């Protein structure tokens, strides 16, 4: 039982936006080193800022002032989100600073790039976390004492790393396959280092807001603050801690203002304080106040994504694994590099979103993320990312050449790329000339068709040929995928329903 006899409720919001990549073709390699879709990044940030971040922050600030120390909330702002605020929506960053100044808001540390580095490298993981801690100090004026990993990814090992870095608590998913008969409504500790407290998400109560709030076919619709508080109160006799963890875009973006989501947010804290014995606390306060009931053993990584609550949203197929392995194979050279542009690109390319877009089960499990997915298919996402990563590698190798033999292979590869570009340009020019000739002499039409087919063969090497059949199912020319990437695409099966 808790030391003080208090019952706590933790309300936590994730804030993250990736730097989306522009369409980057194979023939851009070695020539175009700017990878980002500035228009999409700015327009999406402005849209979400106006629909979600600014109005939701205003509601949170009003609640803090209204409840005079009784309402507290927790945020995690990825380093990439902070960078986009600075570029496209500085007023959003100002509004988060105002929340920080109240003393009623805790900001959590995380990987600066909202990356999957915890699944690959401890040293790189710690470097990114330390960078994020510095960003929070610089732009929000806060010192992070608790932690959440990207998309709540957690395992015993990751938790032990976080404990060794001095954090008091970590947030993760209350996954059924991990808990078994246990309840997520208590505080636990890391099985390898009990100093680290583990807060487990109550996914039922969280998803009632995140995914079911606007669903008119839901038997509990409409969800009111009083009804929600009554559900929490029913859990009180057998619970000490209720963790409501949400994407911040739940308010105003995933659920539009017209659904009443902001009215719900405005009234829910008051209803909880009035109708339940639970009091709002931040993760660090909970770690200092409540006593863990036991350790929680999680040998394999879990997350809050999809029905499986595992990491298959980002590493569920060969495309994703190959892309992530390739990315972190470059870490050694990046860490030796002093080029600021290289370091910035390294940070942006690590965002977990790039790998999420490659998920072949995306269409059944990722309805919310599909809203912002810039690609039509997972294969498009893979080829675009790998083209960008290949150019990034070219830049690194110019700074840090491999052995003489490897360097020679690299130079020959660059020459092949350049010759391919010349061929493509010449093919396009031939196509233009033959069209002009055809206007003068229609008898040359067969030659025009032949020339165009030749040009098409060049562009076919750029990406796999993916089409949609009459049923809407993906049809993929696997031979072309094999030609462009050393991945056996026929082994990657889509879970699309």
Polypeptide structure, described:
By secondary structure, this protein is of the alpha/beta class. It has a domain at 7-296: 7-stranded beta/alpha barrel, CATH 3.20.110.20. Helix content is 50%, strand content 10%. It contains 21 helices and twelve strands. It has helices at 38-67, 79-88, 90-101, 122-140, 156-164, 176-179, 203-210, 225-235, 261-275, 283-289, 312-315, 318-328, 331-336, 340-349, 353-356, 362-365, 367-370, 378-399, 404-440, 445-460, 478-484, and strands at 7-15, 73-77, 105-107, 147-148, 169-173, 188-190, 197-201, 241-247, 278-280, 294-296, 466-468, 474-476. Strands 1, 2, 3, 8 and 9 form a five-stranded parallel beta sheet that branches. A five-stranded mixed beta sheet has the order 4-5-7-6-10. A two-stranded antiparallel sheet has the order 11-12. Strand 4, helix 5 and strand 5 (169-173) form a beta-alpha-beta unit. Helix 1 packs across helix 2, helix 2 crosses helix 3 (90-101) and helix 19 (404-440) runs antiparallel to helix 20. The longest helix is centred in the C-terminal third of the chain and has 37 residues, at 404-440. It starts with 6 loop residues before the first strand and ends in a 13-residue tail after the last helix. Mean pLDDT is 86; it is low at 446-497.
